[in-house]
From TrEMBL:
Protein name: Methyltransferase family protein
SUPFAM superfamilies: S-adenosyl-L-methionine-dependent methyltransferases (SSF53335)
Keywords: Methyltransferase, Transferase
Transmembrane segments: none
Signal peptide feature range: none
Origin species: Kribbella caucasensis
A molecular-function term among this protein's GO annotations: S-adenosylmethionine-dependent methyltransferase activity
GO biological process, one term: methylation
InterPro entries linked: Methyltransf_11 (IPR013216), SAM-dependent_MTases_sf (IPR029063)
Amino acid sequence: MLGKASELEQRERRGIDYLHADVADPDLLEGQSFDAVVCSFGLSDIDDLDATVSNVRRLLRPGGIFVFAILHPCFPGAEGVSGAWPSDGSYYDERWWRADGSLSTLRHQVGANHRTLATYLNTLLRHGFQLDQTAEPRPTPERSGNRPDLSRLPTFLVVRCR
């Protein structure tokens, strides 16, 4: 995906620099700082959450914000869609796993790290972040389709902290 994005940037400049790197590397972007860091559905793909959040804290300018969205750690799944934790375990089993739902093709291919909500929030607090805002968007009727059970629990969690 980065290759395709870089090609598009070459054709139509938008001022975006793409970087393929380990976000847990303590030397990542050494000497640089940012007003905001955004992570869209990537934290469960990262093995070392603690080192990653430490880097985000280091890279933010004073007053900077960190916003991330994840599959809600409490999402139990739905017909054909794997939840946020392994089907052979429970919400409290934190580990890497592969989805087994018939509609969860990407998570089946690459796997994910399940963590509890407490793990995410306590990691942020341990690194000096303060929660600014959270959201648990309600699925739209279009998203829920003929599955009213999907509108009973949040699918996603969005967090903004400073």
